[in-house]
Amino acid sequence: MQKDLVDILQGEVRKNGISNLVISVSKVSVTTDLSIAKVYLSVFPQNKAAELLEAVKTNAPLIKHDLSQRVKLQLRKVPNLSFYIDDSLDYIEKIDNALSGKENPIENRDLLDKRKKF
Prior knowledge:
Blueprint: H1 2-15, E1 22-30, E2 36-44, H2 49-58, H3 60-71, E3 80-85, H4 88-100
Parallel strand pairs: 2-3
Antiparallel strand pairs: 1-2
């Protein structure tokens, strides 16, 4: 399912003539009853991620139809698709910067989240 979704999404990007955008499906988790599939998208450049996510969400029924045509002999039911942006690469980069000393919260206290006083 993940590979088919990548083919569908990248095909739509190419068909619309967008050349400076890379989209990939990093993870798909499906419920046991095949009712919902959470699809995590990784987008480069990151600044276009929110715009692309909205476009994908509005076209979710068409994407589900294309997916159903591809997997009709493999699945009895095609799940409803809900799309999310995968921010794991940003999280990994933040950890790398902290470990390499670039962003040391001990030296620069502004990097830490401020605690709320009740």
